[in-house]
Amino acid sequence: MKEKFLFILRSIFKLKDKIAFFPTLIAFAGSAFAYLMFYLESQGISKYLLDIVPDLVINNTDTARTLLTTITAGSISIMVFSFSMVMVLLNQASSNFSPRLLPGLISNRRHQVILGIYVATILYCIFTLISIRPSGNEYQLPGFSVLLAIVFMVVSLGAFIYFIHSISQSIQINNIMDKIFKKSSNRLLHLIDSEKDNKESFKSSDNWNSYKSYKTGYLQNISLENIAEIAKKHECKIEISANKGAFLLEKDILFKTEIELDEETLGGLHTNFDFAKSELIEDNYVLAFKQLTEIAVKAMSPGINDPGTALNAIDYLSQLYVLRLKKNDISFTYIDDIPWVFISTVNFSSLLYEAMASLRTYCKHDVILVKRLLTMLNNLKRLSTVEAYTKSITEEIENLKTDASHSIKNERDLALIASENFNV
């Protein structure tokens, strides 16, 4: 029962990344506020305010209807324009940078809230317009509600001005990369802080019971604490075989258990794995490496040819790899200092190779980019304290020099690349 409740909560929590989530909530709030004003008007709030502060109450039926109609039409126009700007942003980001950026841009909270303000204002004005009675009696006219509609329109205009500023900032690639870096670095630092210096490891899981995935999609999130509690309850070590962020087909092995578990327990375990059709950096820091690599590669395509953006992307990658050096390739989830769950993670060697394979292919002809990549790799080699990490970095340095030597023909450039310890 607890597992099902947590599954429902996680499903609701995932909705926050949908572009319509916050607009829907704010729209409901606007509608609810309109009905609250219906009740207050029935209690005579406009009559009371008309006696106390008559300047705050709209007391003419034609004026009220004209104002509400104008505000509604204006809000719809602003909302359509704003939504069109969002579509332009998404299209440009997909074309010029990387389609992987779209989920992060769609989930922008500020833009969602602004769209919600527009919708709430429109619904409030419509419901208030309906409540106007044709008799025109001054005490039946919702004058105070009409005044609040004017206030909401002013708020919408302020939100629109802020939206123009925000959208102009969001489209700049430097801001996009900075946002990617901050989200991924925060995630990496959290994972590093949660690691324990425990030398205990699981015994070989070759003979453990294997259980397959029941869905197809990206393994977006794993509730490790819940899985660890189940493991402790049944005194059964669990190994999660699939990497977080990996694309799984049905019947691919998802996890292994030390002992065989009953169907009810397995059902509870499966509810702790969330699948999705897209990925978010907040859930998987590896996606940041992919996005920054794709931005650099796209910038070096013949149609765009923007080496400056590629250099910036490499600089952000350098900072992320420095953080990744501090994280172990093996991760456990503990309860009372006892490891119950082993998590398969993308190891440093694979993470470095996947980025460098693409960068070497598209940047090997540009000596400036090759220099920056060699600087990044040499800095990582200097900072590395793990032998396996150092070995992978050395291999990538040699691979980059080999590919560059085949593409660059200038003797001075080749001499610079051949030197391993240069400084830029």
User: In the residues, how many domains can be counted?
Assistant: 3
Secondary structure class reads alpha+beta
- What count of helical segments does DSSP give? 16
Measure the end-to-end span: 60 Å
Radius of gyration: 29 Å
Strand and helix order? HHHHHHHHEEHEEEHEHHEEHHHH
Contiguous low-pLDDT stretches (5 residues minimum) are none
Helical content band: 55-70%
Give a quick account of the main beta sheet: strands, pairing sense, barrel closure.
5 strands, mixed
- Please give the number of β-strands: 8
Beta-strand portion reads: 5-15%
- The order of strands across the largest sheet is 1-5-3-8-7
Q: How confident overall, as mean pLDDT?
A: 81
Coarse morphology: flat
Provide a quick synopsis of the model:
This protein has 424 residues and is of the alpha+beta class. It has helices at 2-14, 21-42, 45-52, 61-96, 102-106, 109-131, 143-170, 173-194, 224-233, 263-270, 286-299, 307-324, 348-363, 367-383, 387-407, 411-418; strands spanning 209-212, 217-222, 238-240, 247-248, 253-257, 273-276, 331-335, 338-343.
